[in-house]
Design a protein that fits this description.
The chain is of the alpha/beta class and about 450 residues long. The protein has 16 helices and 15 strands. The chain has helices spanning about 10-15, 25-30, 55-60, 65-80, 90-105, 120-135, 155-160, 185-190, 195-215, 240-250, 270-275, 305-315, 330-345, 345-365, 400-410, 435-455, and strands at about 35-40, 40-45, 50, 110-115, 145, 180, 220-225, 255-260, 280-285, 295-300, 370-375, 380-385, 415, 415-420, 420-425. It is globular, with a radius of gyration of 22 Å.
Length: about 450
């Protein structure tokens, strides 16, 4: 049969190897091919319309089909379609974007290093931390601590920092020198009767014990998402980062802020670090940096780090790290215009304002028999499904309750993401209050169907 007689989905199955996909299940179910999108909506090849309740992969902040961004890309392609940053070369869009990021960052930033994905940004963070400590004459200070259930990317280093088994299984990861400490999930990790403050104190003490057991002179950095995304939209309790910061400061350990999901308004502030009172040394940016319109990432570093690199170059020579597409002029031009649109349209304040209604609707499901925990901030949130609300007993993974609910949501024209049995929501920042209601109305219908399907699995039902 010729390719012209096959659907796009069939041709996809024949030609494509998909990322972050269960291969056997994909072969059995087939592909869903999307063909166009506008605003908060996206259409598949059968012309079914969906509300994109996940902003793609947490990224389309300004929504789909934004002509200001396509025009910015076209203008830059006509003017300078490509240029690199190697050997001191540069281009205007990269310079302007770096200046803009320095302007809006919540901490003092000296320099900006560009890449093209959140994974390479966090791989860059590892190399910078190692290079930095070598430059300071501290060659043993190389271990990096992340948290259970964190997500930092899929490179060898960034996947090793990631605290999710799916990023390790079959890949012989993680490798040394990466360490892990407890996830700040109060719902799952708090002890009986433990207050949020006591929980935060315990986690800080556990971190300090880990550091001391490994030797503080061997620990380079602690990396954290302000709010953990792919690990289940875990919102740290009030005071968590303040207590963690005291420990890091005590042992001269860098705090790497992974803003790949939280950055550019998602939490109701420009950066998640502002929402959760972090004082990072360095920051990783991607996703909403360009609203997903172009692949671009950035690492922001302080002056003291850059000065160490500058001095070391006298003896080490070329700083041998970078990418063909670092500071790509088209990507940078689109990212710059994207940030300008976020500012011009007040989307950060909008996320904070509409987040009140969004969180109220989200938490309205707390009484549902399937829902154990409702959590979130700004325009991001999640509902964790449980078999027993009193004991927090989870469903057997074999039942795939979350996947069932995700599929039922799509039947009602809503895209969400099942992270195991936690359902995540992350709509574009341009969403309206009426559209928020439509998201949760559709979700409620799907949730009730899933309840009917798994009613016999719920304790007390």
């Amino acid at each position: 049969m010729s390719r012209s007689n096959l659907s796009l989905g069939e041709r996809d199955m024949d030609a494509m190897f998909h990322p972050t996909t269960h291969i056997q299940q994909h072969r059995a179910k087939g592909s869903k091919v999307f063909t166009r999108a506008e605003g908060i909506h996206i259409w598949d090849e059968q012309q079914n319309q969906y509300i994109e309740g996940m902003s793609g992969l947490w990224c389309t902040a300004v929504g789909y089909g934004e002509k200001e961004l396509s025009d910015a890309a076209a203008r830059q392609m006509d003017k300078l379609s490509y240029s690199h940053l190697f050997n001191g070369r540069s281009n205007e869009p990269a310079i302007l974007l770096a200046e803009k990021l320095k302007e809006i960052a919540p901490v003092a930033v000296s320099k900006v290093f560009f890449g093209h994905s959140g994974s390479d940004a966090n791989d860059t963070q590892i190399k910078l931390a190692w290079y930095y400590n070598n430059a300071l004459g501290r060659p043993r200070k190389k271990k990096i601590i992340s948290r259970q259930r964190s997500y930092h990317g899929v490179g060898f280093g960034s996947a090793s920092m990631t605290g999710l088994a799916s990023s390790h299984t079959g890949f012989d990861l993680p490798f040394a020198p990466f360490l892990r400490t407890r996830c700040p999930d109060y719902y799952r990790e708090a002890e009986a009767g433990e207050s949020e403050e006591a929980f935060c104190t315990r986690l800080a003490e556990e971190l300090e014990s880990l550091i001391l057991s490994e030797d503080p002179d061997t620990i380079a950095a602690f990396i954290a998402e302000p709010l953990m995304g792919a690990g289940g939209v875990v919102v740290p309790p009030r005071g968590y980062f303040e207590k963690i910061q005291i420990v890091l400061d005590r042992y001269d350990i860098l705090l790497i802020d992974d803003e790949v999901i939280c950055g550019f308004g998602r939490t109701g502030k420009m950066f998640g670090a502002e929402t959760f009172h972090m004082r990072p040394d360095t920051m990783s940016l991607a996703k909403a940096l360009s609203s997903g319109y172009q692949p671009i990432s950035a690492v922001l570093i302080p002056e003291e780090m850059y000065q160490a690199f500058l001095e070391a170059s006298g003896s080490k020579g070329i700083f041998g790290h970078g990418f063909t597409y670092s500071g790509h002029p088209v990507c940078a031009a689109v990212a710059l215009r994207n940030i300008e649109l976020i500012q011009e349209r007040g989307l950060v304040a909008r996320a904070e304002h509409l987040g009140v209604h969004f969180q109220a609707r989200l938490r309205g499901f707390s009484s549902h028999p399937l829902v154990g925990d409702a959590r979130g901030v700004g325009l991001i949130g999640a509902l964790e499904l449980v078999a027993d609300k009193k004991t927090k007993r989870a469903f057997s993974p074999k039942l795939a309750v979350g996947a069932d609910l995700q599929a039922r949501c799509e039947k009602f024209g809503l895209i969400v993401r099942a992270l195991g049995d936690t359902i995540a929501f992350c709509p574009p920042l341009i969403i309206t209050e009426a559209q928020i209601d439509e998201i949760f109305d559709r979700f409620g219908r799907a949730l009730d169907e899933t309840l009917a399907q798994f009613h016999h699995e719920i304790d007390g039902a």
